[in-house]
Amino acid sequence: MKKSIVLAALLFGGITVFAQTKDEQALKDIYKSSLTNAKCYPWLEHLSNTIGSRLSGSTGADKAVLYTKAQLETLGLDKVYLQEVMVPKWVRGEKEIAYLQVGKQKITFPICALGGSVATPKKGLQAPILEVNSLEELTALGEAKVKGKIIFFNRPMNPEFIETFKAYGSCVDQRSSGAREAGKLGALAVIVRSMNLRLDDLPHTGATNYGDIAKEQRIPAAAISTNGAELLSKSLKQNPSASLYFKQSCETFDDVLSYNVVGEITGSEHPERIMVVGGHLDSWDLGDGSHDDGAGCVQSMEVLNIFKNIGYKPKNTLRVVLFMNEENGVRGGKEYETQSNKNNENHIFALESDSGGFSPRGFSIEADEANFNKISSWSTLFEPYLIHKFVKGHSGVDIGPLQSNHIVKVGLQPDSQRYFDYHHAANDTFDAVNKRELELGAAAMASLLYLMDQNGIAK
Amino acid sequence: MKKSIVLAALLFGGITVFAQTKDEQALKDIYKSSLTNAKCYPWLEHLSNTIGSRLSGSTGADKAVLYTKAQLETLGLDKVYLQEVMVPKWVRGEKEIAYLQVGKQKITFPICALGGSVATPKKGLQAPILEVNSLEELTALGEAKVKGKIIFFNRPMNPEFIETFKAYGSCVDQRSSGAREAGKLGALAVIVRSMNLRLDDLPHTGATNYGDIAKEQRIPAAAISTNGAELLSKSLKQNPSASLYFKQSCETFDDVLSYNVVGEITGSEHPERIMVVGGHLDSWDLGDGSHDDGAGCVQSMEVLNIFKNIGYKPKNTLRVVLFMNEENGVRGGKEYETQSNKNNENHIFALESDSGGFSPRGFSIEADEANFNKISSWSTLFEPYLIHKFVKGHSGVDIGPLQSNHIVKVGLQPDSQRYFDYHHAANDTFDAVNKRELELGAAAMASLLYLMDQNGIAK
């Protein structure tokens, strides 16, 4: 028995060593391709600087669909196509205005309408303003104190969280639900402190959600820059009875036709098993969405470019999907799932990049225990590439709707410290993205897809 | 015997758990202090935006000495003082000019004199130009081909290295030794491609070293931007006989008096055992040295501020040293070591931050096996703070001269991807530093110093 154990150990050890060496070489090839021969950075340059912002239903979004489809067509994939999806069309209109009226003095603030918000009356809106720090505080104040007021949500993101997404998650309810809840209590409008950890002058937009409140009962919602929020709060302490004037002319139109952009390399052994890699092609309208999520789109496209460059033919079908409308509806992600069900497709793996184009640190994994352990066991392969984080957690909004018993879903986790400096703001532009960091992210994604493809899904 | 093992295991386990909990709490306190109550970012803002560049011997360097000493004096330390050190004084002079003369056309290039370089003749210098990729290639060409030429060193940093410092290390010989070696072969001057991984229009300075070549035999050396190098190389292929004109008026003066800035908290148990934390206060003259190494200075000062804030009294003496003249002489580091020897000081630990103020990733450790293992064993404590790299390697230039049998030396390793976008160039400015990343670096440094102080040096 001892002999057979030794033999098994030798054999097993031998196989492991061989597999390691092959995988190690593949990752080397992948990183070399991405760092010396990538297209993702020039792709992003075009998306950001030539096309610009890509809000669902905008000309920019239309151009981005055509451009990325045309670029995928240059890669020699087996299929490139568009998938129809109806999307909301919300337009910001004129530059928003806000000031605090203190006697004859006007103190102005940088604001922007929140995505999906209704407009103020054409001449604007002026009312006393009430600062609160949470939805709970609002509810406790009740209708008597809230009615007729503009509610100012001013809870900052908590800097004590090491990962900024946790600070965002514990703060964003003010933006997403503030207008709905304040409206129920008779407020006239809400102003929300921008989801930004640093103090600056840029208001950050993002979706606000009225739920099932009737259109005519919805109240306008705007974001104020963090410096603006500090100044407004201070001014209100000095002048509690001051009134705020603000004006925005945003508008929601009928839904319009748009597209998810899809390209694929058919699997050489299991063409029916699908691995998805993607990001979302739409962006908010203030910057050009370079980090959110131009970066994720071009990184996903780059994965296929890398495989073509290094001559790797995946066993399973590898499909890139550039989802439309993550920001204000997730219609692309939902439609993709609907069509997938209709066609009885078998998705085994989905990987999304939607946390910015910063230095990659690891992966956030939604999987059963066996698959989580399998992926984590590859950490030594990733060590030379400074990828060290393998944690359980949320993968991505666009791949969220994809559900099956066996699917493994993963989100790329880049360094998060700078993300909310740019998120949904006018400075989310091409110059904020570093070429190498973008390419390292694409290589980490390609490496994980390679390992998944080679070593399969634990059952 | 079994019982005693179980008992020992329980006791040992218990002690470990207790120690972990105490250390875990200390790291929590340290990070909270740094992320909510730090002074390092406003300190850097002043150093960068009010004082500006701090080349050894400049007014900026003098102001920085006075400013940081005054700031240390506000922290309630046990000692704050200046340590005299004589430093070189090199001055850039007028903006440098370079163009390629192709017939009647002049193609201009962004250049800057390398630190320590001699000037061209007052009217400039014009000569045929010869491109090489390495010192070896230069030597192989020999005097016959080199004499009377301007040598253009154009080997780019290799993007395949995952860590950019490795790419720098394998490339910087062109800058540091190019002029010396080309001069020996009769070249008239050298132009060196900037040590920058990206293509842009900024020339990056840095020290060039003539060795023991007599002053009158030294030839001028300048850096050219990466875009400039690409254009120059292409132009030379089209016009091999074109000549390059360039002019620079830099000058070296007599050494002047400057200072290392020192502050300390006397150890409560072992005042004679010294732990040093530091960075270098001087910078190059083109930007304001925010990453190199304003960041390291204010992070080092912040370590003492954190300990004061959380009420931690180190057992060993904790000394912050802001070294003068790292960039072109390391006189501060050498003088510190000389004085330390003269005073029979006992340094047990030195930690330097001189790799930029980016997201911290880990530590580069110079220590014997036992100490390396001890420090590495703390990695689980650092895991919640995304510090994952504990590797053997170079610690820091300024603490380099400190040598003793038992000293452990460590360098903070931030994410390196963006560092050479800014290094020694005009864009190394305050806006390139993120507040949280800077603070996280300071917290990582304070955490390591705390653990060293508590858990001692393995013997």
Task: Summarize the SSE layout with pairings.
2 copies of one chain form a homodimer.
Chain A (H helix, E strand, L loop, with lengths): L1 H36 L2 H12 L7 H15 L5 E13 L5 E6 L2 E4 L2 E3 L11 E8 L2 H12 L3 E4 L10 H6 L3 H12 L4 E5 L27 E4 L1 H13 L4 E5 L3 E15 L4 E11 L9 H21 L5 E8 L7 H12 L3 E7 L7 E7 L2 H8 L2 H4 L6 E4 L15 E7 L4 H4 L12 H21 L4
Parallel strand pairs in A: 5-6, 6-7, 7-8, 11-12, 11-13, 13-16, 14-15
Antiparallel strand pairs in A: 1-10, 2-3, 2-9, 4-8, 5-9, 10-12, 14-16
Helix pairs in contact in A: 1-8, 1-13, 2-8, 4-6, 8-13
What does this structure look like?
Two copies of one chain form a homodimer. Chain A is of the alpha/beta class. Chain A folds into two domains: 28-90 and 254-455, 3-Layer(aba) Sandwich (Aminopeptidase); 93-249, Glucose Oxidase, domain 1. Chain A is built from 13 helices and 16 strands. The first copy, chain A, has helices at 2-37, 40-51, 59-73, 135-146, 164-169, 173-184, 226-238, 290-310, 331-342, 369-376, 379-382, 419-422, 435-455; strands at 79-91, 97-102, 105-108, 111-113, 125-132, 150-153, 189-193, 221-224, 243-247, 251-265, 270-280, 316-323, 346-352, 360-366, 389-392, 408-414. In chain A, strands 1-10-12-11-13-16-14-15 form an eight-stranded mixed sheet, sandwiched between helices. The first copy, chain A, has an eight-stranded mixed sheet with strand order 3-2-9-5-6-7-8-4. In chain A, a hairpin with a 2-residue loop joins strand 2 and strand 3. The longest helix of chain A is centred in the first third of the chain and has 36 residues, at 2-37. Chain A is elongated and about 75 Å long. The two termini of chain A are 30 Å apart. Residues 1-15 of chain A have low confidence and may be disordered. Chains A and B meet through helix 1 and helix 13 of A and helix 1 and helix 13 of B.
